[in-house]
């Protein structure tokens, strides 16, 4: 019996677009133009006699019928790929994992560890973009988004992987010049602030039961990583996130002048689109993040 098969190039364009949630990303994966993918999708829609996507600004969303269709045909593409690789008929191609993460977290925690992930998984290319935008404001279709939490967002699976507190930190050289025996000694120092986190010092001072503290000077930066760099350079005292300054504390580049009190903070979490939660690469990367987070916290204990 003759098979009722739609145009296979059009089907391939549909599968890639539906899986990635983006015509742009599908075009990159298939090594064709954005217009070529759009044309193939229109061809398939004409062949099927039904719309497959709803266009929403720069993203495309599957219709309910198209989602069900993709769930049926998607495993067939995976099976063809596995069979082809099994019989040595294609050279393995590195897959790209797209990650969107907070800037300071990326600079101070993720980047120093990415080499270990690449060494363990050389077949995976990781594309990292930094952003402090709220998750719901992101327009691109990401495999993994790293933000604070835990929060709940419709259509995403959330998993915490790294917790932290905030504590005052400074360079050893600064501490030698101006000792800090008790929190009230901060009056003789410069306090370093971040404009997006204005409550860090007031909240910590309140918890440390220090009232009406007037430091010698205050400096405010627009990015947290600049605030931490100023602390490393001996400019002043910053409120350091324990997860992101752990390496500096271990190496002696920063010190904690007081035993406490720690100021509780939100955890770092992965937010994965539900459509990508079962993806092998996504699961692999998220599991690695959780292992690294647990290892850091065990070392800090």
UniProtKB/TrEMBL annotation:
Transcription listed as a keyword: yes
GO MF annotations in UniProt: DNA-binding transcription factor activity; sequence-specific DNA binding
UniProt keyword terms in alphabetical order: DNA-binding, Transcription, Transcription regulation
Keyword Transcription regulation: yes
PROSITE patterns (alphabetical): HTH_LYSR
GO biological process, alphabetically ordered: DNA-templated transcription
Pfam family, one: HTH_1
Domain HTH lysR-type span(s) in chain numbering: 6-63
Family: Belongs to the LysR transcriptional regulatory family.
Protein name according to UniProt: Transcriptional regulator
Organism name: Paraburkholderia monticola
């Amino acid at each position: 019996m003759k098979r009722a098969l739609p145009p296979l190039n059009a089907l391939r364009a549909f599968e890639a677009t539906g899986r990635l949630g983006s015509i742009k990303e599908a075009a990159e994966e298939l090594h064709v133009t954005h217009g070529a993918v759009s044309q193939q999708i229109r061809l398939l829609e004409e062949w099927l006699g039904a719309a497959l996507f709803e266009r929403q600004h720069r993203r495309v969303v599957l219709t309910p019928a198209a989602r069900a269709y993709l769930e049926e045909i998607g495993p067939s593409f995976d099976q063809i790929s596995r069979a082809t690789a099994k019989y040595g008929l294609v050279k393995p191609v590195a897959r790209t994992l797209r990650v969107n993460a907070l800037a300071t977290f990326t600079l101070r925690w993720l980047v120093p560890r990415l080499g270990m992930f690449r060494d363990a998984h050389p077949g995976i290319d990781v594309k990292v973009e930094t952003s402090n935008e709220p998750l719901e404001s992101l327009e691109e279709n990401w495999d993994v988004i790293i933000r604070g939490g835990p929060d709940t967002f419709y259509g995403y699976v959330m998993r915490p992987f790294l917790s932290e507190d905030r504590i005052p930190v400074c360079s050893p050289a600064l501490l030698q010049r101006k000792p800090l025996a008790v929190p009230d000694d901060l009056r003789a120092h410069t306090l370093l602030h971040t404009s997006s986190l204005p409550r860090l010092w007031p909240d910590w001072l309140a918890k440390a039961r220090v009232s009406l503290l007037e430091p010698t000077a205050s400096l405010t930066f627009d990015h947290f990583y600049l605030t931490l760099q100023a602390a490393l350079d001996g400019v002043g005292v910053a409120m350091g996130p324990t997860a992101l300054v752990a390496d500096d504390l271990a190496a002696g580049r920063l010190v904690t002048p007081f035993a406490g009190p720690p100021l509780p903070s939100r955890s770092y979490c992965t937010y994965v689109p539900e459509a990508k939660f079962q993806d092998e690469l996504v699961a692999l990367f998220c599991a690695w993040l959780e292992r690294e987070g647990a290892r850091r916290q065990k070392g800090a204990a």
